[in-house]
Amino acid sequence: MTTYIGDPVRSVMIAEPVFVSPDACLREAASSMVAAGIGVLVVGDGVRPMGMLSERDLVEALSAGTDPDDIDVEAVMSRNVISASAMDPIHDVALQMFECEVRHLPVMEADQVVGVVSVRDLLRPLLLSALDPGAVGTGAEEG
After folding, report:
1. Which of 9, 77, 88, 113, by CA, is between 20 and 30 Å from 140?
2. Global pTM?
3. Would you list the domain boundaries of the chain?
4. With contact defined as beta carbons under 8 Å apart, do 126 and 6 qualify?
């Protein structure tokens, strides 16, 4: 099935976000990222995000000489969580990520995180749209 830039972001999001406790150490968080093959963790209680921890956050902390066993996630996570609604169109989410200079967003539905979307997840529908400007609608017409 082709995904269009007018389709809801839920059609391209990773549907099982990985959460990490704010009091987990950075080594534990990094191990979770590696095990799941992802570049961001949602910091929180498994329902609502209190922050996000990205690969970039980890690299910045480590390059400052932080011991990954002695500092917790809450100390280095990004606190200003910007999110998308599961039904937001892909093109709106891409613009929001560009304007806010973020590479990952939690996707929310009824005050719960239901997924995470990355720039990479948005790349295919955006490229297809650029190559075929007539394909900017939604996939609903495909039936």
Report:
1. 113
2. 0.86
3. 9-132
4. no
Cα–Cα dist 105/49, whole Å:
11
CA distance 123 to 83: 18
Angle at 44 between CA 114 and CA 125, to 5 degrees: 35
Local confidence pLDDT in tens for the 143 residues of the chain = 677 889 999 999 999 899 999 999 999 999 999 999 999 999 998 888 999 999 999 999 999 999 999 999 999 999 999 999 999 999 999 999 999 999 999 999 998 999 999 999 999 888 888 887 665 554 544 44
**The pair of three-digit structure tokens given for residue 105, joined into one six-digit string:** 């967003």
Phi, psi (5° rounding) for residue 93? -65, -40
What architecture does CATH give domain 9-132? Roll (3.10)
Alpha helix ranges (H) inside the chain = 26-36, 55-63, 73-76, 90-100, 119-131
